Amino acid sequence: QVQLVESGGGLVEPGGSLRLSCEASGSDFHLYTMIWYRQAPGKQREHVASIRNNSDTNYKGSVKGRFTISRDNTKNTVYLQMNSLKPEDTAVYYCNAYIPTPPRRSYWGQGTQVTVSP
User: Fold this and answer.
1) 82-105: per-residue pLDDT in tens?
2) How far is the CA of 10 from the CAs of 33, 54, 57, in angstroms?
3) Residue (of 93, 92, 94, 87) closest to 116 by Cα position
4) How many Å apart are CA 117 and CA 81, to the nearest integer?
5) Element (H, E) at 37
6) Three-state DSSP class for residue 47
7) Cα dihedral 79, 54, 3, 99 sign
8) pLDDT for 28-86, tens place per residue?
C-alpha cells in the first residue's frame, strides 16, 4: 500500500503561480510513474502531467509551457509547478502513483483544491 499526501493548493489570481507537492510513503518511489490529474466541477478527471521513473515527462496540451512536473527521489516527492494560471485551471488536483511492474496497480492521493479567480 502506498500513501500519497498532496499539499500546496489554494486560491490564486489569474497569472499567478502555485506549486503542488505530493509525498509518497514506502521505499520504491524511484520505480513509480507519478501522475497529476485534475477534476473540475461537472467534468471528468483528466491527465495533467506525468513523470516516469527515468524522468521522461508528458503534459496535457493546454498546460505545456506553463506547468512543470518534477520529482525528488530522495524525498519521495513529486512536484507540479504551475505558472501563468488561468481560471480554467480551477479544479481539484490529484496525485497518482502508478507501479508499472506486475502486478500493475495505482494509488491516489486525497486531492488538493486549486482555485484561480480575480
Assistant:
1) 999 999 999 999 999 999 888 899
2) 25, 30, 25
3) 87
4) 18
5) strand 33-39
6) strand
7) positive
8) 999 999 999 999 999 999 999 999 999 999 999 999 999 999 999 999 999 999 999 99
Cβ–Cβ under 8 Å, residues 113 and 7: no
Question: Measured in Å, how far apart are the chain's first and last C-alpha atoms?
Answer: 40
Q: Which amino acid is at 1?
A: Q
By the 10 Å C-beta count (0-12 exposed, 13-18 middle, 19+ buried), 88 is classed as exposed
Give the SS3 label for residue 60. Answer: coil
DSSP calls for 66-90: TEEEEEETTTTEEEEEE-S--GGG-
Find the DSSP H helices in the chain: none
- Phi/psi for 73 (5° steps) reads -70, -20
Amino acid letter, 41 = P
